[in-house]
Every structure is written in C-alpha cells, then in structure tokens.
Amino acid sequence: MESQDFYTIFVYPLLIFLVRIVDVPIGTLRIIFLAKGKKMLVPILGFFEVLLWIIVITKIVQNVDKPHYYIAYALGFATGSWIGMLIDQKLAMGTVLIRIITAKPAVTLVEALREAGYLVTDVPAFGASGQVNVVFTIIKRKEIEKITGKIREYNPQAFYTIEDIGYASKNVMPIEKKIRFKRFMLTPRK
Known about the structure:
single chain; Alpha-Beta Plaits; 2 domains; 4-stranded antiparallel β-sheet
C-alpha cells in the first residue's frame, strides 16, 4: 500500500474524526457561556470552532468521492456532542430554580432544606387533586443532586421541576454561609 493510500484511507478520516471531537465541544461551551453571559469567551471560542470546522470541511469538499470521510465527520460530530454533554455536566455552571409540588404537608421537607442552609419559599396552593404545597428554592446547579436527594428522602411522592435561571436579581448563597459570615463579623473579640 502506498503512503498516499494510507493517508487517504486511515489518517485523513482519523484527523477529521479527531478535529470534530474538539470542534463540537467548543461549540457546546460557546453556547453555555453565551447563555451564562460570559461575553469575553464567546467570540474566542467561536473563532476556534469555525476555524476547525473550515479546516475539516475543506478536506471533505476536496475529497467528495470518499464516503468514509463523511462517516468520520458524522462519527466525530456524534462523539463530540457526547463529550460536550459530559463537559456541561462537569462544569454545572449557573443557577436553577427547583419547584416542588407535594400533596403531603411539606413542613419536614422545608425544615430540612432550611436546616441545610437553603433559601426556601413554601406556598399553599390548590392542584388537580386538592390542597397542595408548592416549594421554591434557587440553588447553584452543582447542588441539584443534594437537593433532589433531600426531596426523595423527605417526600418521595413529590413532583418537582428544575429550570435554568438566566438571571437572578441577587446572588444566591445558602443561608448557612451568610449566617457564618455574619457571626464572624459580629462576634465581639475577647
């Protein structure tokens, strides 16, 4: 096999695949940073995303008669999308609203969340099957598992939704951290 055939059959498709694995997560990060208001990073990531895409697409257009290039491109895109999702989960940037609806009284759940230091709003409401409680809390996205664990522990039948918040008027910090800071500031020196 000639070296040109080796490159055409193996090396170029592998490079196309690898570049897409890098290019697609960059696009994912660009969208995440755009949604989170990180305005300085967005154009930089966009530049590299498009540069890599142009390099790959140029190679494919020059070799339209090689279907394995298309397969490498598609596999790279799919794998890059998967890697982008993993990166998004690891970064867990931003703030979310958790809305909990429960037919059972939410007193113990609300107390447990407040005891854990979360700001909680508990509202009596009327649902399809009668009286319910709607509990709201705003948390950092990294803490979703912790909160959903508490929901399952204290009220496993509760229905809850989680929504990304693009903007909140105040910095969301658990009560415990605020109190600890205030105690430090207000404690008289001995």
